[in-house]
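Why show two proteins at once? Because comparison is the fastest way to build intuition. When a single record is shown, students tend to memorize it. When two are placed side by side, the eye starts asking what differs. So, the first record is below.
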Amino acid sequence: MQIMTLIPELKKIARATGAVIYDIYQSGEFEQEMKLDHTPVTSADIAAHNYLSTQLALLTPDIPILSEEDCDIAIAERQSWDTYWLLDPLDGTQEFISRSGDFATIIALVHNNKPILGMIYGPKDDVLYWAVDGEGAYKETRDGEEQIFSHTCPQPLTSLNVVVSRVQNPDNIRNLVANDIDLELQSLGSASLKGCLVAEGKADCYIRFGITGEWDTAGTQCIVAEAGGAILDLNLNPLSYNQRDTLKNPDFIVLGDRNLTWAEILTG
């Protein structure tokens, strides 16, 4: 498969999915309920899932699809897939509900348990991030497209710019990071958009506590890695994809500078 040949059509699909979501967002008319894991789902999530999964099935009919909104697939079946689409049609459902505008569509292509393509589209700002394994990471706005790179921190390290959730208790971050490092915190919704801030060098790291799924990180992981960073669990091990019964992630960190001694920085 020539992955780069998919990019132009995927951009159209990502933007069209974002338009489905944003039309509902602007109307203010949507239904919501709680899922079994006590996270919210809205009619916008379902509409985005239906559109996105249909378009990908038309684009690549031989590639299976795993979406947050259709993830009840036994591991025995999933592990027979060497390549599959991994989707979060609406990342940031709570931000959608609270009307912050910080939500996005995440598309990832996973091959042999590794994300090899990532695309994230934020409709509020009409911003699209994408990457393909070995081809670099890119950001596209109304002003054009540019390659992006994560930030290399000066050493000795004295401070970190950390992007966090609006509901994140800052004490959790402070307790994890060595006391001699000053923290500058900036808040943003949507796990994927926070990860992209790290990828484009506007934050040094994003530390995530709490429930996320593999669909929340796969697209971001490809983009961050191609920009020069990494996504690791808090023991600094790589995240896994489609290798366990559960599709839930451990707590993790998105880091921009792989050359820092993160084992010494994360002392909590």
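Second record. Ask yourself what differs from the first in the token line.
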Amino acid sequence: MKPIGQVMQNALKDGVFPGGVLLASKKGRVVFLEAFGHARLTPERPMTIDTVFDLASLTKPLATSVAAMILIQEGKMDLDQTLGNTVRDFSDTDKKGLSVRQLLCHTSGLPDYQPYYERLLNLSPDDAKTSLRKLLVAEPLIHKPWEICLYSDLGFMILEWLIEEVAGEGLDSFIGKDLYEPLGLKNLFFNPIPQIKNRSYAATEDCPRRGKILEGEVHDDNAYAVGGVAGHAGLFGTTRAVYTLLQELLDTYLRKKNSAIFHPDTLQDFFKRQSDVGSWALGFDTPSRPDSSSGKYFSDKSVGHLGFTGTSFWMDLNKDLIVVLLTNRVHPRRDNEKIKLFRPILHDKIMEMMCK
């Protein structure tokens, strides 16, 4: 596996990221797990395989989407139930007919992003979340549902609200109690908890608004404004914890185990591309040809997701293979985008080594 490590070392030299942790598995066996570079540049601190990362948008598949899976399996939610029939605030809006399915696969017609945090300054997290939800209710659709596929943070902010209504508790509480705890995933969590605040966190941006280098504090501005728990961002975790959850999903999908939490039929639905207008399955992306971040060797039966802070995973359902890459590419500045070209190079090398 030396060539894989060399690709990561080259990335450090080329300034793709200050540090990262790479894990690759095949048929349920971890064949590569190694840390590279630095978790923080000043003062210098090395990356380790136990470093905790701000997972950014990996929150969408690894918290919000799996929460929806669980509620669907419990018969409390349906993929085609509408927003207006679930969250009363939307009943008289242009979004009342949006379905859980459309929100999960980014075909709702909502905008991709809004800097809501700019209007939430100086509010407490609870007041900010109330105000943000009023902004979501007022936000007009910019496309008809199913017209185009537009990746949307807003859709997952709304999904968090919907899950909260159905579950009767916050997303962090529900997913912690019903998924992370039963699987022993102590290293997947929202808002770093006191007993592990001294753990090693991967630093993210030197943030002028907050006047410091962010570390163990959510990078996403909208998630930060509402207290760190959101449907689109806010989850923290280690590489091994991300992998453990993904392996549970993959083993269940392949019917290699009887999961106490997931059902293979649910995963068949969630891992299936939903429309011809985009590459999205339900909360998970699929390879978009020819320029997928998964490279050229992952099969069309693969699912994955990227996170803004430099995080990603890809899971090949045919080859029973998982790659998790967690980096701090936004440290100390977010304008470093070299990772876009790097990801497919890395994935191609891994596939060449593991699938000869």
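One difference worth noting in the second protein: The chain has a mean pLDDT of 97.
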